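User
Class, as today's exercise, I want you to study this protein, comparing sequence with structure tokens, and judge whether sequence predicts the tokens.
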Amino acid sequence: MPESHETSGPTRRRAFTGSRRGRLLARVGIAVLVLAVLVVIPGYLASRPAFFKRSVPLEAQYASWQTSVHAKVACQRCHVAPSIVSQAGYSASMLGRFYVTAFSPTTRSVEFARPTIAACESCHADLRTVSPSGDLNIPHRAHVDVLKVACVTCHEFLVHEVSPEGKHTPTMAGCLKCHDGRQAKNACSTCHTQKSAPASHRAADWVVVHPGKQAGGDCASCHAWTKNWCVECHTRRPRSHGSDWRTTHAEKVRIHRNCEACHEGSFCVRCHGAVPQLNLDPAVKLVE
């Protein structure tokens, strides 16, 4: 009998310790399960782009994203700063949004910040210097590193919408917002390696005679980058027409007449009562 008392004490202690460890493991397991159900899984679901598929204001952006080259990139990779703190903050906010939308389905819209250069460069470290076809110069370093131009300034149709041509690539019209001859050079050879203005375009009278040349030329090969490319020039006030143009235009007409390149003949009549005959060349086909 004494021997049984000696062995029963340690046995009871081991049994008690094992029971306490078991209860602890059970509690830890329950806590992990609760954490997974209430935090990890909802946080993951809320961080996926599909979470915004139900959001009516973002339906179009989501559909375009699915067909873009970034279709496998999560929203926060582009729209949130790449730092650990910013990414963690976004995840926490999306967890809250998950529960908000669960109880208030109409509260689903969200505004994302424009992607920063740092966010783009977290993936795109190797920047192109020329287009795949070799025709277009793409000095990314000059734009991004030197001028600090945000990537989305040029790549505005990259993910969430398409250009008027139905593409995700930058448009020439977008380039010419800066390359207008004042902010940046606008000569064809500035950007295009295989294109330059024809000799005819450099002639002194090109502004006057070009309407008669377009019938036999392939203008669209260069100018079809926008639907109404003629309007881009014809609705723009020429540089020569400054604040003193009313006073100086008569002398300019004596030197080089090209009024009818832009103005109908009746335009002069409004002030002069007749079409001025200075330097008028009947052989030149002017605007009627």
